[in-house]
Amino acid sequence: MSTAAESPELSAKAFKSDQQVKWCPGCGDHSVLVQVQKVLASIGARRECTVFVSGIGCSSRFPYYMGTYGIHGIHGRAPAIATGVKCANPTLDVWVVTGDGDALSIGGNHILHTIRRNVGLKIILLNNRIYGLTKGQYSPTSEFGTRTKSSPQGSIDHPIHPISVAIGSEITFVARTIDTDVAHVQYVLRRAAAHKGTAFVEVYQNCQVYNANAYGWATDRETKADRVLYLEHGKPLIFGKNRDKGIRLNGDTPEVVELSRVRPDDLVIHDEKALDSSMAFRLARMHYPQFPEPVGVFRAVEKPTYEELMMAQIAAEQERHGPADLERLFRSGDLWEVSETAEG
């Protein structure tokens, strides 16, 4: 992080721009925007050292609403743009805000390679399982059979699961949260902000107009305790309104059990720091209604970042060859002289 103790403490209001927020009423983007602004204030972020980069879509209006530097890029290319920013100035805190269509359709290749390189970006993927800006077509995360303007008989595409993609791409930090659970959103964002390397946060986010109640099972106060599993490092996987259910492994397969019928040490203990990502991937494959849907930090491990390795290579070459000389570089190697010749 490029925070500084000597910088004056800012309020969440300082991270708001003067632009009118134009998302639809009830859109989950509103909640995420407010929580991001609160988190940046709480961690002492510096506006002049913070950059938000986006692509195309409803979520990609985000940079306009932040009182920081920002780049509204092109469709799917936000990770590539953000990588350039971070590598040009590794001291900057660079955030990417994207949607399920922007990131996982045209931007799928960019986000995969950003993750595997472990570039020091914080990526927030707002997943409403629909294309909102272009008026309600099915997206890469839409559920099989979803009826939309572009799939009137029901989508026959199988959905991408962002957490699974991130873990399969060797992510060092990956988490999931829900737009209505504001305290949990803040917790996850603070964890992401503190991580060194690529931090990928999926937010289950409601689109009130084109995919309303997509996550009703996870937001309904009466039922969410039985349908959502909160991951806590070092603690057993327990859930339920009465905290009476848990997750254990049956061979390699997770299964739901009643606590009254198993021993406490039968339950899976969540280890977000495990170097082997197999268990994190198993958790990522748990989906409602067969399982409670996990939220929280799936994985948080450390390894060198792309920009650190890049700067180390530059420093090593400078040590070997001295300061760069562009003129000398131009005149090194094979040279050709082009001259005008008389026609025969």
How would you summarize this macromolecular structure in one to three sentences?
28% of the residues lie in helices and 17% in strands. By secondary structure, the protein is of the alpha/beta class.
Structure description:
The chain is an alpha/beta fold. The chain has a domain at 12-214: Rossmann fold. It contains eleven helices and eleven strands. It has helices at 29-42, 78-88, 100-106, 108-117, 162-168, 182-194, 216-219, 224-227, 278-284, 306-321, 326-330; strands spanning 50-54, 69-72, 93-99, 121-127, 173-178, 199-204, 228-230, 238-239, 245-250, 253-258, 293-300. An eight-stranded mixed beta sheet has the order 2-1-3-4-6-5-11-7, sandwiched between helices. The protein has a three-stranded antiparallel beta sheet with strand order 8-9-10. Helix 1 crosses helix 6. The relative contact order is 0.11. Mean pLDDT is 91; it is low at 1-5.
Write the layout of secondary structure elements.
Layout lengths: L28 H14 L7 E5 L14 E4 L5 H11 L4 E7 H7 L1 H10 L3 E7 L34 H7 L4 E6 L3 H13 L4 E6 L11 H4 L4 H4 E3 L7 E2 L5 E6 L2 E6 L19 H7 L8 E8 L5 H16 L4 H5 L14
Parallel strand pairs: 1-2, 1-3, 3-4, 4-6, 5-6, 7-11
Antiparallel strand pairs: 5-11, 8-9, 9-10
Looking at this protein, list some descriptive labels:
11 strands, 11 helices, Rossmann fold, 344 residues, alpha/beta, single chain, 3-stranded antiparallel β-sheet, 8-stranded mixed β-sheet
End-to-end C-alpha gap? 67 Å
How large, in whole angstroms, is the Cα Rg?
23 Å
Order of helices and strands: HEEHEHHEHEHEHHEEEEHEHH
Gross CATH architecture of the domain at 12-214: 3-Layer(aba) Sandwich
Per CATH, the superfamily of the domain at 12-214 is Thiamin diphosphate (ThDP)-binding fold, Pyr/PP domains
- Biggest sheet statistics: 8 strands, mixed
CATH topology of the domain at 12-214: Rossmann fold
Proportion of strand residues: 15-25%
Q: What is the percent of helical residues?
A: 25-40%
Number of helices: 11
Largest sheet, order of strands side by side?
2-1-3-4-6-5-11-7
Assign the CATH class of the domain at 12-214: Alpha Beta
Mean pLDDT: 91
Q: Judging from the principal axes of the Cα atoms, what is the shape?
A: globular
Question: Pairing-aware structural class of the strands and helices?
Answer: alpha/beta
DSSP summary, beta strand count: 11
Low-confidence stretches: 1-5
